[in-house]
Amino acid sequence: MRKSLITTAVLGALAAPSFVFAADAAPASGFTTSGAAGLFSQYIFRGLTQTDRKAAVQANFDINHSSGLYLGIWSSNVSWPRDDYAGAGSVYSRGGSQEIDVYAGFKTDLGKSGFGIDLGALQYYYPGTETKLIGAGNPKLNTTELYGAINYHWVQAKISGVVSKDAWGFGKYGDGTGNDADGTYYAEINANVPIGEYMGGLKGLTGIFHIARQDFKGAANEAASYNDWRLGLQNAFDNGIVVGAYYTDTNIKDTNALWRYNNKNIGDSTGTAFIQKTF
């Protein structure tokens, strides 16, 4: 589940899977590459821990063109597909320990207005996952989204919509029960405030702000909907090292079994620290 980090990194450059990208001047071909690799105290996706509060190693690689087109891949370890879901035991376990996201899109500035747009598609893939529920089977974890964002300097508004029938295990079961999850959306507002530029001191110091709504479609899926938010600080150094920390929380109640893994509310308030190297 992702991308708290793709979004934040677009904003880190604005300024998503990363916080800041560094790229050399575009060669004659118009292509450049960028990316990052980092260690996180846990992987948080849309307010939910994906690693049961344990460490995550994440990396991404992007190919960018001067036309605004881009193609990228991002990956992290995860634990939730094999964690004990809602105390139901291994009968609900789907296996798998990795998330791989492939994305492509187009982004550009709108003249000198300070506005920019970013449009694209994102495929979440969880290799090695399989359905072990007794009976006709679970909806798939693999999910496809289309997204669109508008940026104004260091503020971004973005919406991502699911176009696959299944969304992270929510959807229709093989026996016909449940509802397709297509139309599920995530609406967010992000801001990476360049504190260092306004207040002096560490010139790479940035304040992180995020608030969002995850809305699941389909009557059988709607109880999974929730709000989340994030607040933090990060600092990008001239050598490409980025360090930071942020606090996240959701309005998911402890009694909501849909988000209980290993008998824990995975949307509970928590803090995350990270160190990352951009290139």
Structure description:
By secondary structure, the chain is mainly beta. It has helices spanning 4-13, 195-199; strands at residues 31-40, 44-45, 48-49, 56-65, 69-77, 98-109, 115-125, 143-152, 155-162, 185-193, 205-215, 226-236, 241-250, 260-261, 264-265, 270-278. It has a twelve-stranded antiparallel beta barrel. A hairpin with a 2-residue loop joins β14 and β15. The protein is globular and about 55 Å long.
Condensed summary:
This protein is mainly beta. Helix content is 5%, strand content 46%. The chain contains 2 helices and 16 strands.
Give the key terms.
disordered N terminus, two-stranded antiparallel ribbon, 16 strands, 46% strand, mainly beta, twelve-stranded antiparallel β-barrel, 5% helix, globular, 279 residues
What structural class do helix, strand and pairing data support?
mainly beta
Shape: globular
Looking across the biggest beta sheet, what order are the strands in?
1-4-5-6-7-8-9-10-11-12-13-16
How would a textbook summarize the main sheet? 12 strands, antiparallel, barrel
Number of helices: 2
**Terminal-residue CA separation:** 24 Å
Gyration radius, rounded: 19 Å
What series of H and E elements makes up the topology?
HEEEEEEEEEEHEEEEEE
Helix content: under 10%
Average pLDDT figure? 88
How many β strands by DSSP? 16
Low-confidence stretches: 2-23
> Beta-strand percentage?
over 45%
Give the secondary structure arrangement, pairings included.
Blueprint: H1 4-13, E1 31-40, E2 44-45, E3 48-49, E4 56-65, E5 69-77, E6 98-109, E7 115-125, E8 143-152, E9 155-162, E10 185-193, H2 195-199, E11 205-215, E12 226-236, E13 241-250, E14 260-261, E15 264-265, E16 270-278
Antiparallel strand pairs: 1-4, 1-16, 2-3, 4-5, 5-6, 6-7, 7-8, 8-9, 9-10, 10-11, 11-12, 12-13, 13-16, 14-15
